[in-house]
């Protein structure tokens, strides 16, 4: 008797967990988009495979937005990932991965220049990055830039260079009232103990999104918006499929990575406002 009760409880809990994991979830993902229309988002990465190892939940969530919000997504990768001399192969792998993730041909670019080479010990110069992204941002009317934060998820110095370069780029734009500068969002690096929880990551994030929807006393609620994208099974499978296009990179520890990493399931974003822009903005307040 007790055995069958246990069995039913186990079945109930498993089916609940399954249901919780199945679908995608998001919190305020629309805040990534500027109020300017049409909305053009640029994903700025350092190496081929960043797009699927770290950013897939967001790329997929943005494509699920309703048609009046739906942005055009662009991808700019600042190196071909030539650290092991595989640059040509990796360029093609990136293209195949972006096909899987739904970034159209003609909206994706890879730069290969001596100052921005895949190198774990090289800090990329902020001015060089700013010069590299400027033509793409201007030509394609980019109003949102998405990239790594100052910890770069994996502490890779090339990753860490990107938010500095993108923020520097924003400060070089002429300020004009009718055209606001692009908004810059950075992917939150979580502490190591949260990074490899596997399917616990999407479960915990969904629980936290659900809790945040409970109305609270506005006097005690914190004002900061959290922008979160959580993939369901379908999204995770697509990120996995995109990663499998990077076959030159699929050494054993990357299989571990795709099995347990939070970033295959969950992305959380914060906006980065360069100091000079913040001053300009507060200067224009009445
Ligand atoms: C990587 O960067 C370091 C530091 O900037 C430099 O000394 C080294 O030569 C670079 N390696 C390659 C292969 O370019």
From TrEMBL:
Top-level taxonomic group: Eukaryota
Record keywords: Signal
Annotated EC: 3.5.1.89
Pfam families, per the entry: PIG-L
Keyword Signal: yes
UniProt xrefs under SUPFAM superfamilies: LmbE-like
Record-level Gene Ontology MF annotations: N-acetylglucosaminylphosphatidylinositol deacetylase activity
The keyword Transmembrane is annotated on this UniProt entry: no
Gene Ontology CC: one annotated term: endoplasmic reticulum
Signal peptide start-end: 1-22
Enzyme class of the recorded protein, top EC level: hydrolase
Single Gene Ontology BP annotation: GPI anchor biosynthetic process
Family: Belongs to the PIGL family.
PANTHER family: N-ACETYLGLUCOSAMINYL-PHOSPHATIDYLINOSITOL DE-N-ACETYLASE, N-ACETYLGLUCOSAMINYL-PHOSPHATIDYLINOSITOL DE-N-ACETYLASE-RELATED
Protein name: N-acetylglucosaminylphosphatidylinositol deacetylase
Organism annotation: Dichomitus squalens
């Amino acid at each position: 008797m007790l055995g069958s009760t246990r069995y039913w409880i186990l079945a109930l809990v498993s089916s609940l967990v399954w249901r919780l994991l199945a679908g995608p979830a998001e919190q305020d993902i629309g805040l990534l988009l500027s109020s300017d229309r049409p909305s053009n988002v640029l994903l700025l990465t350092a190496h081929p495979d960043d797009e699927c190892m770290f950013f897939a939940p967001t790329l997929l969530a943005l494509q699920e937005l309703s048609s009046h919000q739906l942005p055009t997504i662009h991808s700019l990768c600042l190196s071909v990932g030539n650290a092991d001399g595989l640059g040509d192969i990796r360029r093609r792998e990136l293209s195949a991965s972006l096909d899987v993730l739904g970034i159209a041909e003609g909206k994706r670019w890879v730069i290969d220049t001596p100052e921005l080479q895949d190198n774990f010990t090289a800090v990329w110069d902020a001015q060089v990055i700013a010069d590299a992204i400027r033509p793409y941002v201007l030509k394609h009317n980019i109003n949102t830039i998405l990239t790594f934060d100052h910890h770069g998820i994996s502490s890779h110095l090339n990753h860490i260079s990107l938010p500095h370069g993108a923020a520097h780029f924003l400060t070089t734009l002429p300020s004009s009232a009718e055209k606001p500068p692009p908004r810059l969002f950075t992917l939150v690096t979580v502490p190591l103990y949260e990074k490899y929880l596997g399917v616990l990551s999407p479960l915990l994030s969904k629980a936290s999104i659900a809790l945040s929807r409970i109305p609270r006393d506005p006097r005690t609620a914190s004002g900061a918006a959290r922008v979160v994208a959580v993939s369901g099974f379908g999204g995770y499978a697509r990120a996995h499929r995109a990663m499998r296009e990077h076959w030159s990179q699929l050494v054993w520890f990357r299989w571990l990575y795709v099995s347990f990493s939070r970033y295959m399931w969950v992305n959380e974003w914060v906006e980065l406002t360069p100091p000079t822009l913040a001053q300009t903005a507060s200067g224009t307040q009445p």
